[in-house]
Structure formats: structure tokens, C-alpha cells
Amino acid sequence: MKSIAVRIASIVILTFGLTMLLAAEEPERADPWAPIRVLLGEWEGVGNGFGGESRVHHSYGFILQDNFIHSTTVSEFQPKEDGAPWRDP
């Protein structure tokens, strides 16, 4: 008789433990991109350097299921007066 009581108690405890394990929700993970998420989007500005004045366009956005950030930068320079291409001195 003692053996049956032990088996029933074991089954009840096991069932309760499995129910609690399956009912437990996975903890919410912190967003690894949170510190730099503010930088995502379209950015425009002006630049000045060896090539002269320029307009600069930056674009930052998620790719590949939000695992990577893709960055694109385009700089447009005014043509030189003599028509010669810009060269680094």
C-alpha cells in the first residue's frame, strides 16, 4: 500500500512540475540594438573637404531579419570649374 501512495505522489509531483515548466513564459530579451536605434533612418547634410562643397546622404536600416544594419553613404560634389576630376593631392 505504501508503494502505491509513493507512486501516486511521484506522478502528482511530476505532473505538477511539468505543467509549471511548460506554462513558464520565456523571459523577454533585451533589445541589443536599443543604444543605436536612434541613428536608424535617413540623414542629410553638407560636407567640405578636398573635393570642395558636397551634399551628403546617409541611410541606415535593418537587413536580414533585423540581424544586421546596412549603411549607405552618397556624397555629391559640385563639378570643378575646369571640368577636371577631383584628385587627392
Summarize the helices and strands and which ones pair or pack.
Elements: H1 2-23, E1 41-49, E2 52-63, E3 68-77
Antiparallel strand pairs: 1-2, 2-3
Quick take:
The protein is α+β, with helices and mostly antiparallel strands. The protein contains 1 helix and 3 strands; from the N terminus they run H-E-E-E.
Structure report:
The chain has 89 residues and is an alpha+beta fold. It has one domain (2-77). It contains one helix and three strands; from the N terminus they run H-E-E-E. The protein has one helix at residues 2-23, and strands spanning 41-49, 52-63, 68-77. A three-stranded antiparallel beta sheet has the order 1-2-3, with no helix packed on it. Strand 2 and strand 3 form a beta hairpin. The N and C termini lie far apart (97 Å). The model has no long low-confidence stretch (mean pLDDT 79).
Helix tally? 1
List the secondary-structure elements in sequence, H or E: HEEE
Beta strands, count: 3
Radius of gyration: 31 Å
Low-confidence stretches: none
Strand order of the largest sheet: 1-2-3
Arithmetic mean pLDDT: 79
- Describe the biggest sheet? 3 strands, antiparallel
Structure class: alpha+beta
Distance N terminus to C terminus?
97 Å
- What is the percentage of strand-forming residues? 25-35%
Helix content: 10-25%
Shape, please? rod-shaped
